[in-house]
Amino acid sequence: MNIAIILAAGVGKRMKGQDKVLFKIKGRPLFFYTANIFDKHPRIDKIIFVAKKAYFKNIFSAAKHYKLRKIARVVEGGKERQDSAFLGLAAAGEIGAKKGDLILFHNVANPMVLPEEISEVLAAARKYKAALLGSPAKDTIKEVNKGGFLVRTLDRKKIFLAQVPQAIEYSLAKAAFLAAKKDKFYGTDDVSLVERLQKKVKIVPCSYKNIKITTRADLKMIESLIR
Asked: Could you give the count of Cα atoms lying within 13 Å of 142 in the half-sphere of its Cβ?
């Protein structure tokens, strides 16, 4: 079983008051476009939404109106993104996830992931137990010291910008999240918790359109792409 956990509980501090989750594009809320990709994907079996309680009514209403049939659970998010992901993982266990199943962690603010990219990250995770999408670096990457002076130029062929979904085998995800919780460690993404266990993580190149909406400018760009 492949379960997609869509994380929609973030505050969105850089949006300056704009609620990106409910932002309407062509009359439909942004979260619909993200959910619809996974709902239509033939290899995704169930979807779990992790959201603010204030969004529950909107999600249930959209699921019914737009016939999103794979939403199995909507749970309230935690204080940090990692807390929300952990709550989503717990919900996955409650709906029957078991060893060998794949859990995909995805941001509601990434509505432009392609179906074939989801398939590719699933295939990689099936083989290696953990995988993520990543955008190859296009620019020259410089490392600097605390004073802001250049230390070295990194080989951009080895640099990827981490994107979502990030897919982890269920039992490995549980072990990684529980270890992080025990150590009070917070990573910047999901697979970083797997890295802490010294497990291999496979990166799968993805389109540059698969960006996360963090600013109003990003929102306008996504709106233009969808339209």
From this structure: 6
**In this predicted model, what pLDDT tens digit does every residue of 199-227 receive, in sequence order?**
999 999 999 999 898 888 888 888 888 87
Residue (of 61, 68, 204) closest to 132 by Cα position: 204
pLDDT band at 20 (very low <50, low <70, confident <90, very high): confident
| Centroid of chain to Cα 190 | 8
Average pLDDT, the chain: 94
76 pairs with which residues across the strands? 51
Query: Are 50 and 56 spatial neighbours (Cβ–Cβ below 8 Å)?
Result: no
pTM of the predicted model as reported, rounded to 2 decimal places:
0.94
Domain parsing of the chain, residue ranges: 2-226
Cα radius of gyration rounded to whole Å, the chain:
17
**Closest-CA residue to 35 (of 92, 118, 94):** 118
Report whether CATH 3.90.550.10 matches the domain 2-226.
yes
Six-digit token pair at 225? 């792409």
